[in-house]
Structure formats: structure tokens, C-alpha cells
Design goal:
The chain is an alpha/beta fold. The protein has 2 domains: 318 residues, Rossmann fold (3-Layer(aba) Sandwich), CATH 3.40.50; 98 residues, 2-Layer Sandwich (GMP Synthetase, Chain A, domain 3). The protein is 31% helix and 23% strand. It has 12 helices and 20 strands. The strands form 4 sheets. Strands 3, 4, 5, 6, 7, 8, 9, 10, 11, 12, 13 and 14 form a 12-stranded mixed beta sheet that branches. Strands 19-18-17-20 form a 4-stranded mixed beta sheet. The longest helix has 22 residues. It starts with 5 loop residues before the first helix and ends with a strand.
Length: 423
């Protein structure tokens, strides 16, 4: 679709929207009910009419999970769940057609970054526990015609053993784990700079700031390793990903697979360079179609033409989630602000943020850090940085580093648990 004109794109996407809305209304019991008063006519369907369709929320999906299923259960090829980082896990149902759509998305994303069938990828995230991302990248690499080494999360020694044995060119990993990987290499005299690794596909965490420059985490990786790192944004619900191109000026929308809205507080469209909530409609989905789904994720939208020549909209990093806003001692902030601050310190390779409600329903912030920091000069520096950057000083607790890593990189968790909300 990148080669089509803007008018062609509008017509193509309107047709795709009409098709998926008609399909969902006919086959999904949830949408049969919620769209029962919507009169659909292909000749009269427009973006204005689309905008009148009610939103679908995470609460809708959680409370009515199975009613979103649009095919007989016998047609489901794979059952996936969300990570549950912001609530109870939600199930999504994928048919064989949906798996093919998933493989196309990741193949397109990897190609966008400049990867080819000559690359070999090492997967540092799980493929089990109903996790979509690991499976998606595996399918995408197969579609690309490249090779995949499936190591899974954690275990730095095993990761390095595999890198040194098989010489992969690209890692697919959560970027904060790369810091742990580099620390392990330094501690064990592994000459990581001379390995075969050329690039990292970063998932689950941002490596860029609001101006699309590298954030502290991205800078820490690049200060230690002269490689290319690429940012992505995805969710299980959308069954697709926004990915950077080689120009690295935001993550591109795959317009074949998603219709995107970025909406301000009043639900009007965010303009170029403005923040808004990401709202998506899944295109060409068979098992669990979603119409005007509010992700809760807040990001900046870029609507101008990219340096790579593509006209598709691009997203900046996720600056926060609506339900993760923290109110602490009169200050409002998102977890990302805390992460960015801590990622600035090379001596901090692992941390955990605990948010707990007090008896007045206010948020208390506690930072769990390596016990070696407790009596170091850097602690005062961190406190001063919190005061100047966050305008508040949180509470601190100190834990033995291996125990702390176990609290963050849990075996039963699909992603590092860098923050925990206790209500």
C-alpha cells in the first residue's frame, strides 16, 4: 500500500474498514449487539460514519472476552493472551489466516529495518506461555526466509554461548535485558564488540525519547556496543506492530493490517507532532476482530512524509498509559519518567518500581535498587535527580542484586516486571 496515492489509500482503507465492520457485526456476538443500530451500506460508508461507531475498551474485552470470537472454536489455530501488565490477561483467538497475517506483519517490519534472508536472528523472548510476540517474530523470520535461534528470555551465559557458537546477526530482545547481557559479558571477559551481532530489534520497552532521539536506555546500549538498534510498538490485541525504518524517525503503521486513530482528550484527531491515545481497528482479522479499540497508550503521531519516502503515519515512543498515571505528593507522572531517570546511571543494571496506594488512596513510590548503592555517593545523586526531574523524592529499598534480578526477570513472566502496582 506504500506505493498508492493518498486518495487511493483513503478508498482502499475505507473498503477494508467496511469489510471488517460488516464481518464483525455478522460474526461476533459482541459486535452484533453493540452495532445492531448501525446501518451499513458500502456505497454510503465513510470515515465520518466510522467515527460514529462506539469505542471498544479493554474493559469490554475483559468482561465479554469470548463474545468477541467471530469463528467457531474449531477454526482456532492458536490461543494467545495479553501480558496482563495492566490488568487480568485477555484471550485472543487466531485462525490460520490470522497467523499468516501475523507472519506478514513481522516480515514487513524486519524488511523495513533493512533485514534480509541472509540474516540470522536470536530470539531472546519466550515463545510459550501464550505469548504472541515471540511466535510472531518466529513466523516473520520464516516468512523472510532467514534463520532463527530460539533461546528465550534471561540466562545471559546461554545467550552468549549461542552467539559465539552460531554467529547470529540480529537479536530480538527487551532492551533493558541487553544491559544485563553487556554487564555479564564484561564480568566474564567476553569480547562482545567482536561478535557477529550487527543489530537489535527492541521490543516491549522504548529506546527513544519524545523527540525521537535515543533515550537513556538506548544511549547506554550504544555507548557500549557499536550496533544498530530499532524501536517497535505492538500489542497482542492489534496482532501487528509499528516498526522503525532505516531512517529511524518514528515507528511506521502497516496500513494493510491496521486502521489508526490518535485521539486527544476530546476525541478529536491529534495533529502532526501532537500526543493522543492510540485507537486501532484490526484489518483482515478473522478470529478476534476489534473495532475502534482504545489501547490506553499515549504517543505522539507523525503524519508528514518520512525521510525513507513512505507516507504512512508514524508513532513516537509510548509516553504512558492512561491507567498507569501516578499521583505522588502532589505531582503527576508516568512510570516512563522514572525509568528514564534510572536508566541514566551506568551503575544501575537492574531496578524495580513499586506503586502502592495508602489509606487515603494516594500513590506511594518505592524504588528497589541493588544493596551496593545504599551506602554509595550515587544514592544522593539519584535523590537530587529525582527532586529536579520528577519534583519528588521517592522511597528507597535495597536488595541483593541476584534477588532483585529474580524479582524483575521472573521465570513465569513473559516480560521483565520493572513496575508493580499494589492496590
Amino acid at each position: 500500500m506504500e506505493k498508492e496515492t493518498k486518495s487511493d489509500l483513503s478508498e482502499i482503507q475505507i473498503n477494508k474498514l467496511f469489510d471488517i465492520i460488516s464481518y464483525a457485526k455478522k460474526n461476533s456476538s459482541f459486535y452484533k449487539k453493540s452495532l445492531k443500530n448501525l446501518n451499513l451500506s458500502k456505497n454510503k460508508f465513510s470515515i465520518d460514519l466510522y467515527k460514529k461507531i462506539p469505542f471498544t475498551t479493554k474493559s469490554d474485552l475483559a468482561k465479554n472476552n469470548e463474545s468477541f470470537l467471530a469463528v467457531p472454536i474449531s477454526k482456532i489455530a492458536d490461543f494467545v493472551t495479553t501480558s496482563g501488565t495492566t490488568g487480568s490477561p485477555i484471550s485472543l483467538y487466531l485462525t490460520k489466516k490470522d497467523l499468516k497475517r501475523l507472519s506478514k506483519n513481522e516480515c514487513d517490519s524486519l524488511t523495513l529495518m533493512g533485514h534480509t534472508k541472509k540474516d540470522t536472528f536470536q530470539l531472546m523472548t519466550t515463545m510459550d506461555k501464550q505469548f504472541m510476540a515471540g511466535m510472531a517474530y518466529f513466523l516473520g523470520v520464516q516468512e523472510l526466509g532467514a534463520g532463527m535461534i530460539r533461546i528465550g528470555p534471561g540466562v545471559p551465559q546461554l545467550q552468549w554461548d549461542s552467539i559465539l557458537r552460531y554467529s547470529p546477526t540480529t537479536l530480538i530482545a527487551v532492551p533493558s535485558f541487553i544491559i544485563t547481557l553487556l554487564d555479564y559479558a564484561k564480568e566474564n571477559n567476553i569480547n562482545y564488540k567482536s561478535t557477529s551481532i550487527k543489530s537489535i530489534v527492541c521490543i516491549g520497552e522504548s529506546i527513544r525519547d519524545e523527540n525521537l532521539n535515543y533515550n537513556k536506555l538506548g544511549k547506554r546500549i550504544l555507548e557500549n556496543w557499536n550496533i544498530n538498534i530499532y524501536s517497535t510498538y505492538a500489542s497482542t490485541e492489534m496482532g501487528a506492530a509499528f516498526s522503525e525504518c532505516t531512517a529511524q524517525k518514528g515507528c511506521h503503521l502497516n496500513e494493510d493490517l491496521l486502521f489508526l486513530e490518535v485521539l486527544k482528550e476530546d476525541d478529536s484527531n491529534a495533529l502532526n507532532g501532537e500526543y493522543g491515545e492510540i485507537v486501532i481497528t484490526t484489518l483482515n482479522v478473522e478470529g478476534t476482530p476489534l473495532i475502534r479499540y482504545r489501547t490506553g497508550d499515549i504517543a505522539k503521531i507523525y503524519r508528514d512524509k518520512c525521510e525513507c519516502g513512505r507516507a504512512s503515519p508514524r508513532l513516537g515512543p509510548i509516553m504512558g498509559r492512561k491507567n498507569q498515571m501516578i499521583k505522588f505528593r502532589g505531582t503527576t507522572l508516568y512510570p516512563k519518567a522514572i525509568f528514564d531517570l534510572l536508566d541514566n546511571y551506568k551503575t544501575i543494571s537492574c531496578y524495580k518500581v513499586i506503586i502502592k496506594k495508602d489509606e487515603l488512596n494516594n500513590d506511594n513510590i518505592t524504588l528497589l535498587l541493588d544493596e551496593k548503592i545504599a551506602n554509595s555517593n550515587i544514592l544522593n545523586e539519584i535523590k537530587q535527580m529525582c527532586k529536579s526531574s520528577l519534583r519528588v523524592i521517592p522511597n528507597f529499598e535495597f536488595i541483593e542484586i541476584n534477588k532483585l534480578r529474580g524479582m524483575v526477570y521472573k521465570k513465569h513472566m513473559r516480560k521483565p516486571e520493572k513496575i508493580k502496582f499494589i492496590t
